[in-house]
Amino acid sequence: MTTLSRRSALALGSGALLVPSALRAQATWPTQPLSFVVGYAAGGGADIVARELAHLMTPLLGQQVIVENKGGAAGAIGARFVSNAKPDGYTIFYAVGTNVVTNPHVLKASIDTLKGLVPIIQTTDYQYVLAVNPNVPANNVKELIALAKKEPGKLTFSSSGVGGNNHLAGALFAEAAGIDITHAPYKGTGPALMDVISGVITMNFSSLPPAVSQIKGGRLKALAVTGNKRVSALPDVPTLKEQGVDVAVTGWHGLFAPPKTPDAILDRLHKETAIAMKDSKYTEALAKDGLELPPARSRAEFAKYVEDEHAFWGKKLKALNIKAE
């Protein structure tokens, strides 16, 4: 017969107590404010939507959700910060899709996002708008292409960084149109767009939230949107395809956690985010700036989508000869 010493019994007992304690901690989560980390400067598209979502999720989680901007390296700095954070659910990456699916292929500063970040939920679907300074002598894409062909390399386009969707949109546009335009990477959409407004840069393939108000205010001129259909926020702006350029570039946002974050916390974040996204304030905020709700996906389905996007852009970036920096 096996006997159990008092010391062994106490050791087993204390170990057994640890499991319920950990489970209780997860069950009562959150007990302090959460951070949504955005990998760009304040004022960009991701920052605007992240703040709206954070505001709506605060009452659902019972703790304040704040936004932290950690710009630089096309979002790679923010991604690394979250990947290295304690996996307790209090530091979450509010990612632009390119931070996760293209950065690893083109940025030496990027982490291995498939291993370093855990997908939670997709929060938007959207496209981009080709916006130029109002003084640029082109009122449509055909005229812009003619201008670029007249002076190869002179026209410039800004982006939020190498490998970002607005960089890829510019590269795909130039390839399809057969033109030479010069790329100028910035640390975020906000500053990249401001230099188009000031006239330092010719154009930007901007995410819609920071650009729409500037376009409606006359500080930018919209020549095209990059999706397969027009957007309600800019109904008079035709797509690139409508103007003879066979290019479509769309994007998305999503929430990601550090590796080893407990499933119970990830499930809670997925559930509460999905509820917040059904709020009319969120859908109205998206519609105002031309963004859309994404398809409803489980955590596993979103993870598969991220893996597929990662593989697709790896091949596309190689074909475009966009190399790591």
Which descriptors apply to this entry?
13 helices; disordered N terminus; single chain; globular; alpha/beta; nine-stranded mixed beta sheet
Topology, pairings included?
Elements: H1 6-28, E1 34-38, H2 45-61, E2 65-69, H3 76-83, E3 91-96, H4 97-101, H5 103-106, H6 113-116, E4 118-132, H7 141-150, E5 156-159, H8 165-177, E6 182-185, H9 189-197, E7 203-207, H10 208-216, E8 221-225, E9 250-257, H11 263-277, H12 280-288, H13 299-320
Parallel strand pairs: 1-2, 1-3, 5-6, 5-7
Antiparallel strand pairs: 3-9, 4-7, 4-8, 4-9
Helix pairs in contact: 2-11, 2-12
Task: Classify the helix fraction into a percent range.
Answer: 40-55%
In terms of structural class, how would the helical and strand content be classed? alpha/beta
* CA-atom Rg in angstroms: 22 Å
Strand content is 15-25%
Uncertain runs: 1-12
- Overall mean confidence score, pLDDT: 90
- Total strands: 9
User: What order do the SSEs take from the amino end to the carboxyl end, as H and E?
Assistant: HEHEHEHHHEHEHEHEHEEHHH
Shape: globular
N-to-C CA distance = 67 Å
Instruction: Tally the helices.
Output: 13
- Report the sheet with the most strands, covering strand number, pairing sense and barrel closure: 9 strands, mixed
